[in-house]
Every structure is written in C-alpha cells, then in structure tokens.
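Pilot study result, target chain (192 residues):
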Amino acid sequence: MSEQNIFTIDCKDVYLREYIIDDLDQFHSLTWQPEINEYLPGWNVSKEQRKDWLTNYEIPGNKQFLNTVSEGGVIGELRLRMGIILKASGDFIGWCCTGIKEELPSPNREIMFAISNDHRSKGYTTQATEGLTKYLFENTNVEMLNALALIRNIPSNRVIQKCGFIFQGVIELDNERYNYYKLGKSEWGVKV
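Predicted structure:
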C-alpha cells in the first residue's frame, strides 16, 4: 500500500495512522506487555489470531469507516482503529480507537487507547485522544463520546480528564468497576 493511501491524523509528537499489516509484530508485542494486559485482558492473543483480526476485520473495517466519512460522515456502528506512531522513530507505540460500546446507554460511541510502557507519562496518549476526538467531531455525525477507565487505572483516568471528558459516575462491567466519562461536541467546542 502506498503512503498516499494511508490515513493519518497529526498530533504533535505522534500521529495516528490506520492499521497496516506491517504493524503486526509491534502490535502483537505491545498486547503482551503486563501493563496493557492488566487493563485490557483478551487483547493478548496469538500472533496468528492478531494477524487474522488485522487482515480480515480491522484493516477492512477502517477502510469502510473512512469511505463512509468521505461520503458524508454518518458512521453508524462502524469502528476506527488507529495506531499511535512516534514521529521521531516511526514506531508503533500504542493505539487509539473508537467504536460502539454496547454496555453503555445510547449514544454509546466510545474512545479508547493503550500505550507501550516505554512511552507512558510523555503526553502521547493525550495527544492521540485529542486528535481522534477532534477528527470525529469535525468530520463525522458524532455528537457524544464516552470513555471508560478502570478505577485503579490512574494514568488512563488522567488522560480522559485532560481531554475534557466529564465524569458521569462509576459503572460495573464484567465484575470490574470503571469511571465513566462523556464529552459532547458542544462541550468540546467550548474547550477549544
């Protein structure tokens, strides 16, 4: 795939880039980091499973999402999964995604993220989350975004708060307690 056909969002020190098959090794390695696995169990699948998901679901799903945006921005239940790429090295250091979280009340579009333990506390996740939020509010019909973080996941809660999401309360999903946040397009517009 040529560089011109790869969708990116510039975010200061990092950029968001739609997944490509060349991400497989770095992506797979990240999902096995204990810090990521602790907060996102189930992401640490075999490399063969990750390749299947990338090839057959995530990459084609991104293309469908981006085509829908180019045709008017009514994205419905489509998902967008973006790698967080460090500009200085070109390394895949995490991901920032959006999709429907069925366990939440409608409108239930969620934004979620993860970053390598080598790149935490540097502002990269905040930059990526703000970049994806801006893209969604400016280019799609999204009016409300949700974010969840396990109560004990202090770094993720901080990122969500820095990005302007408003605390709604604590919810329980799969026997885990999460802080639940929302950010409306109207509140986001005031923040900027």
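One observation from the pilot: The beta strands are 8-11, 14-18, 80-86, 92-100, 109-115, 144-150, 166-173, 176-184. A full batch analysis is planned for the follow-on phase.
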